[in-house]
């Protein structure tokens, strides 16, 4: 099935999907509800990555209702290769990437198309936020992933402890970037790798702070822990690829884990007063979450979500640091990744 506007659109939205029918329904619904934009401004390219529960019928329904959506089914090879497949079939001047679990605000494309900064940049990213319809756990996880107190503001916030890096839940770059840099590599933290390659090629990257999306993320704490654990491990992989990329902010969760263990041991062996810094941090998290969400219930959930974010990322980082750097295993990671699709 392939339905699109007769002339090339300015923006091509590329979304990989794997067994996420409900998410695609919500994403396409939000894209169909865009307001104050000219006809044919954007197209949607959905790439089904070998799903056993495909969403082709949903895409076909939205295409029949007028949304310019193209649907491609391919064998399962991973989300990065699916994105590359989408870029091969996209017709726009800009390639935009959303995750399947995103909901797009109704004025996203109106604001993006009229943004005076867009002609001056080659790549952009925007922040994510929690929609009012999200569950309390989803809102708590969103806080944990975006708060300066947990991630240092590196995931699209206005305050950041490192150079801004677009992420594929809300990222766009010009076609010429793809022509020169190539596609995504099939690896964890592939968006950080892609952003680094774009910057190293001399292209300009900017944060567009008003171009937010609503990102549902993981729906329970167990899945969230697994996700951030992998993020922590992949940071060491990125260090091998880009030796100067490891910054202090990336090490902080690992230091948090080591400090947490030290405080607990000291509290048991010497005095419970050693837990005081931990108590102060918990209060700071709760207050910050309360100010952000205006909900005592979500603020309470945000405390364990924040600890999961820090402990998960920190233990993943420490695990990979120990095996790949201290023990010297996996030092051929460069060859492993470079052998996969993408330059």
How many beta-strand runs?
10
CA-based shape: globular
Order of helices and strands: EHEHEHEEHEEHHEHHEEHHHHH
Measured as a percent range, the helix fraction is 40-55%
- Major sheet description: 7 strands, mixed
Gyration radius (Cα, Å) is 21 Å
What's the end-to-end separation, in Å?
30 Å
- Mean pLDDT reading: 90
Q: What low-confidence regions span 5 or more consecutive residues with pLDDT below 50?
A: 332-343
Spatial sequence of strands, sheet with the most strands: 3-2-1-4-8-6-9
Taken as a percent bin, the fraction of beta residues is 5-15%
Provide a count of the helices.
13
Give the helix/strand class.
Answer: alpha/beta
Structure summary:
The protein has 343 residues and is α/β, with parallel strands linked by helices. 49% of the residues lie in helices and 13% in strands.
